[in-house]
Specification:
Elements lengths: L4 E2 H7 L5 H9 L3 E3 L2 E2 L6 E2 L5 E3 L1 H8 L3 E6 L3 E2 L8 E2 L28 E2 L8 E7 L2 H8 L7 E8 L4 H8 L3 E2 L2 E2 L4 E6 L2 E6 L6 H8 L3 E10 L2 E2 L8 E3 L7
Parallel strand pairs: 7-8, 10-16
Antiparallel strand pairs: 1-4, 2-3, 2-5, 6-10, 6-18, 9-10, 11-15, 11-16, 12-13, 14-15, 16-17
Helix pairs in contact: 1-2
């Protein structure tokens, strides 16, 4: 049958979990197709077949946590680099924000499967998300993600009305046209950027194209979640009423 599709891909496309989680659930025997347990990775199913997920998978997913960190400059987002500390090292009991209202406790289990959901350059600061939940990661960094990311960007140099319009739409990077953005002056030396994509060093490269030099960059919002008053170098849990 030509319309057969990998079960893990079906699960991810339906928003049930990430592809990685789907493979884990299949290996654990938590997935059934037409009432038959599937344990072989790479197995396929037809659109008309019935997919069932065990309650144990839902419970496992419910225990996954998402953390928000106010990343300082000089800290790398994910893997450690020579001479630089990875941001995940800042997630300790001592650096948890005292005003975090979530009734959850820090534990080493939080680091199992924890990944950065969207990078932030070493010379940038602001909101950085860590998550164990593949659905959150897909929402934020999946190829079809349209979640807004908002930045305050201090710049040096002159900017004409024409070039401001180009920042909003009309620039290309690596031979590909950028999605429309929302860019306006926040004050005399600071721009506010709202993007729906996250190309490598995108804002800095956009500014270079119109003759500006970035001297400070801070991410203040991802979707419906804001940095707020979270202190620099501290973290908190994503609240139950917050969504990206």
């Amino acid at each position: 049958m030509t319309d057969m599709e990998r079960i893990s891909k079906v699960m991810a496309s339906r928003g049930l979990c990430s592809r990685r989680e789907a493979d884990e659930w299949i290996e654990r025997g938590w997935v059934q197709v037409d009432g038959v347990t599937v344990t072989q990775l790479g197995s396929k199913m037809a659109p008309q077949q019935t997919l069932t997920i065990a309650s144990a998978a839902r419970k496992s997913q419910g225990r996954q946590v998402t953390l928000l960190l106010h990343k300082p400059i000089g800290v790398v987002s994910s893997q450690a680099e020579e001479g630089y500390r990875p941001a995940l090292d800042l997630i300790t009991p001592e650096t948890r924000w005292s005003e975090d209202g979530m009734p959850l406790k820090w534990s080493r289990q939080m680091f199992q499967g924890m990944a950065t959901a969207g990078r932030l350059d070493i010379d940038s600061t602001g909101l950085l998300v860590f998550t164990q939940d593949g659905r959150v990661a897909k929402t934020l960094i999946g190829p079809e993600s349209t979640v807004e990311k908002e930045y305050l960007v201090r710049v040096e140099g002159g900017l004409s009305a024409q070039n401001l319009a180009r920042l909003n739409h009309g620039l290309s990077l690596d031979g590909r046209l950028l999605r429309p953005a929302r860019v306006h002056w926040q004050n005399r030396d600071q721009l506010r950027f709202v993007l729906q994509e996250g190309r490598k060093r995108q804002i800095r490269r956009m500014c270079e194209l119109v003759g500006l030099r970035v001297v400070g960059l801070k991410r203040v919002r991802i979707g419906g979640v804001t940095l707020g008053h979270l202190p620099l170098g501290q973290w908190r849990f994503l609240a139950t009423d917050e969504t990206f």
